[in-house]
Amino acid sequence: MAFSVHQLHSFEEKMNNVCSMVTTEAKVSSISELNETALMKLNKNSLVKSILSLVEHFQENVSICKSAAGKVDELKTEQINLQSKLLKFQNSQMDSLKSTVKAELDTGLRSWCDVVKKNTSQIQSNLLTTTKKSVKQVLEKVNEEEKRSANLMIYGLPEVENEDIAKSVESVYRSMNIPAPKRNIDVYRIGKKKEGKIRPIRMECQNSGDVDYALVHSKRLKISEYHSTVYLGPDRTREQRLEHNALVRKMKDLISSDPTKHYFIKDKRVCTGDKR
Fold first, then answer.
1. N or C terminus: fewer CB in 10 A for the chain?
2. Do 233 and 190 contact (CB within 8 A), yes or no?
3. pLDDT in tens, 159-175
4. Residues 6+ apart with CB under 8 A from 239
5. pLDDT digits over 54-102, tens only?
6. 152, 201 in Cβ contact below 8 A?
7. HEC string of 27-52?
């Protein structure tokens, strides 16, 4: 007997019919209510008929189970065969891929080695030239920053004909109530002279300490009698000036939006605090 789902449904229907017949004869509503007392109420013919039907259906059920077991074994065998074929196919694909990759790598490595061998001297020469340029640029930048760190910039000091710049600078220091450096390398105005424009003054000091000392006390100029419009600053590069100007614009915007706060520039950023 070949197994099928239809056989299971048919067997279930036959068993339900037998159970229905027994519950009807025993006058109970379900199989769960059957007991010895209820079965004793059945007449002999009905009981015999029900038992024979059950035996017949159980025999049929045994045949169905055997057929189902055979079908399961058959399906398992088919699945194992399919898995084996799939594994072999995957292995063959993997071997093919490995061979292709290896061939491409071998070709690529040979080509790369040839290029390197042909251009090693040129590469080394270019690398050495680039390194020398980089080192030179770094050293020049460091030297420029070190030189500028000893320069003090003075802005807003009125410019007059035949002025004595050194004496003008000394008057600024007197307004800050600090001594001017005794040994300045040079002091001069920078930029082209234009009508209506005050050129800044660059004072070359012996070291950066003199510059820092003046900058710390420069806030005193705001309340001085003669130099309230003069301010000091470090000698910045063009890039540094652009960066500082951007910070100043940002600080002015913040002051406009909330004038109750105190704003100042420190460590290349705009800081805020409560007004004293």
1. C
2. no
3. 988 889 989 999 999 99
4. none
5. 777 667 776 767 776 776 777 778 788 778 887 887 777 777 777 777 7
6. no
7. CCCCHHHCCHHHHHCCCHHHHHHHHH
pTM of the full structure: 0.47
Which parts of 159-255 are beta strand (E)?
186-189, 201-204, 231-234
262: enclosing H helix or E strand: strand 261-266
Calpha distance 59→70 (Å, rounded): 17
Specify the 3-state DSSP secondary structure of 151: strand
Residue 111 binned pLDDT confidence (cut-offs 50, 70, 90): low
C-beta neighbour count of 35 within 10 angstroms = 10
Distance CA 226, CA 172 (A): 8
pLDDT at 127: 60
pLDDT value at residue 221: 92
Distance between CA atoms of residues 94 and 232, nearest Å: 74
Structure tokens belonging to residue 59? 């025999």
Answer positive or negative: Cα dihedral of 15, 20, 22, 28. Answer: positive
Residue 256's alpha-carbon distances to 141, 172, 203, 271, in angstroms, are 37, 30, 34, 15
Residues counted in the chain: 276
- Other residues' Cβ atoms within 10 Å of the Cβ of residue 220: 13
